[in-house]
Specification:
- The protein is of the alpha+beta class.
- The protein has a domain of 60 residues.
- It is 71% helix and 13% strand.
- It contains 3 helices and 5 strands, in the order βββββααα.
- The strands form 2 sheets. The protein has a 3-stranded antiparallel sheet with strand order 1-4-5. It has a two-stranded antiparallel sheet with strand order 2-3.
- The longest helix is centred in the last third of the chain and has 37 residues.
- The two termini are 16 Å apart.
Amino acid sequence: MTPAPSSTSPGGPVTQRFSKHENGESHPATIDQGVAGFFHTVQDKMSHSYNDLENYVKRSPTQAVVSAFAAGYLLKMLPVEAIVAAQVRLALSLVRPALFLYGAAKAYEFVVRQKRQ
């Protein structure tokens, strides 16, 4: 295992360890590191998208205002409440299987760690 470069997150410094596989690909060594890496990647992408949007508004403010009015009009026409309710129901129905899979993965990590000792 080789340590990856340290980065900082809102919770403090994060150091991820990656394991190399036969095909040369590196993967997070633990489930927790994989989940933390996923959320860090999402945070980076959201920050990048926000910066792109901010630059777009600075370059062409009139077009940005027109786009905002158009988006607001479309959202007014769509059944947003029903869409959000459906997404919340779907997310809540997937919580149990996700927690089960996470627990199974952690149990697998525990068993592998015990066999190595």
